[in-house]
Design brief:
This protein is of the alpha/beta class and about 260 residues long. The chain contains 9 helices and 12 strands. Strands 6-7-8-3-9-10 form a 6-stranded mixed β-sheet, sandwiched between helices. Helix 4 (about 115-125) runs antiparallel to helix 5. Bound molecules: adenosine-5'-triphosphate (ATP). Adenosine-5'-triphosphate binds next to strand 2 and helix 1.
């Protein structure tokens, strides 16, 4: 399935947040969306998921505007995990993951074998079995993140859209999640701040700055020291080790005001 956005300009409260975005995401790509704070990543991901209603006409799935697809059908194709997902009510991890099956359920139909398999698979992939009966409000930030990703996996989408999914995850889970994402036989679009994770697990990177796409291509083509400097104002060395990229940042004097310490 090809997800496409053409000439997308989004204005929120009289501010232009995205400007003239053209993007074609082919089936099977793992696209990393990068950019400084406020550059428009979340807004673009929400648009791709069809959640910016005014612009759902400009996003197409295999040439069909998302606006033309009933919500249930859209949800069978696209799953979205926002940056700060919330859960209403006192749901357990297992109940949250089961929500992912909603688009596949028929009215008055109980759970079927396919539902059970999808839920169990998602719980296992996110290593949530020991937490399955734990309530949402009793979960840590990382456990909540993994529960929401499991919910999206249980949805069995063709396209998975994740907004900073590594937030709250420790290093082991960050690496595990990125490995899993890169091995899924579906399309993934993922916003990330960690350039090393993006460079080493995504097949393509799209770089946003001030609401515009300023670069798109392979990690090695996008993440050059010059572009990192231009985009984030940070000096970086980019080492290539066979197929891997290793990005190291040079420390510089802080732009933040210094705290005075009065000792003694
Ligand atoms: N509802 C809104 N009304 C007005 N401006 C908004 C609204 N939502 C977001 N913005 C602004 O749009 C810009 C892009 O926001 P967005 O959340 O898409 O950026 P981002 O790249 O995901 O940022 P971050 O890396 O900090 O999560 C920001 O300047 C933000 O302040």
């Amino acid at each position: 399935m090809t997800l496409c956005v053409t000439g997308l300009t989004v204005r929120l409260h009289a501010r232009t947040v995205l400007e003239e975005i053209d993007l074609e995401i082919a089936a099977g790509q793992v696209v990393g969306l990068l950019g400084p704070n406020g550059s428009g990543k979340s807004t673009l991901l929400r648009s791709l998921a069809g959640l910016v209603a005014r612009h759902a006409q400009q996003v197409t799935l295999n040439d069909l505007p998302l606006a033309a697809l009933p919500l249930k059908i859209r949800a069978r194709h696209i799953a979205f995990v926002p940056q700060h997902a919330e859960v209403e009510g006192d749901l357990s991890v297992e109940q949250i993951v089961r929500l992912g099956r909603t688009p596949w359920r028929r009215p008055f139909q109980g759970r079927n074998v396919g539902d059970e398999r999808a839920v169990e698979e998602a719980i296992a992939l996110m290593q949530l079995a020991p937490l399955r009966n734990r309530l949402w409000r009793q979960l840590s930030g990382g456990e909540r993140q993994r529960s929401q990703i499991a919910r999206a996996l249980a949805q069995q989408p063709q396209i998975l859209i994740l907004d900073e999914p590594t937030n709250h995850l420790d290093i082991e889970y960050q690496l595990e999640l990125m490995r899993l994402i890169s091995e899924l036989p579906i399309t993934v679009v993922v916003a990330l701040h960690d350039l090393n994770l993006a460079a080493n697990f995504c097949t393509r990177l799209v770089l946003l700055k001030s609401g515009r796409v300023v670069a798109s291509g392979s990690p090695a083509a996008v993440l050059t020291p010059q572009r990192i400097q231009q985009t984030w104002g940070v000096c970086a060395c980019v080492d290539r080790q066979e197929t891997a990229l290793n990005i190291r940042y040079a420390m510089r004097a802080s732009a933040l005001p210094r705290l005075r310490r009065n000792v003694g």
